[in-house]
Write a structure and sequence with these properties.
- The longest helix has 33 residues.
- This protein has 117 residues and is mainly α.
- The chain has a single domain, classed as Helix Hairpins.
- The chain is built from four helices and no strands.
């Protein structure tokens, strides 16, 4: 039972590695994450602000992971061009964009007053 649980973590981490190795946008999100975390330490954000920032960062990463998974599945079931496959990919990419825009607004709310008091 424990070995099975451990194996599931292995697969999950392998998926995260695959995301980072194959998706250029994931590397951009990684850089943004590092910058936000560094800014959080620099500006000594409160625990409540950390919670909000971590939530926003997580939302972007989850959206990017689902987008990538959907792209892989779409390519599997529709190797040639299909209008619906393209729409599915566009909607998933749009979800990532919405999460990223929300994260930028949250960063502005948290860091804005600290940058220009």
């Amino acid at each position: 039972m424990f070995k099975k649980r451990l194996r599931s973590f292995y697969y999950a981490f392998r998926g995260i590695a695959w995301l980072l190795l194959t998706q250029p946008n994931a590397r951009i999100h990684l850089l943004a994450t590092a910058l936000v975390v560094a800014a959080g330490f620099y500006f000594r954000v409160s625990p409540q602000e950390w919670a909000i920032l971590v939530f926003a960062i997580s939302a972007v990463w989850v959206a990017e992971a689902f987008n990538t998974a959907l792209e892989f599945l779409t390519d599997l079931v529709s190797p040639g061009y299909h209008d619906l496959a393209g729409k599915a990919k566009d909607v998933a990419a749009g979800a990532v964009l919405l999460a990223a825009i929300g994260a930028v607004f949250i960063a502005g709310i948290v860091f804005g007053p600290k940058i220009s008091p």
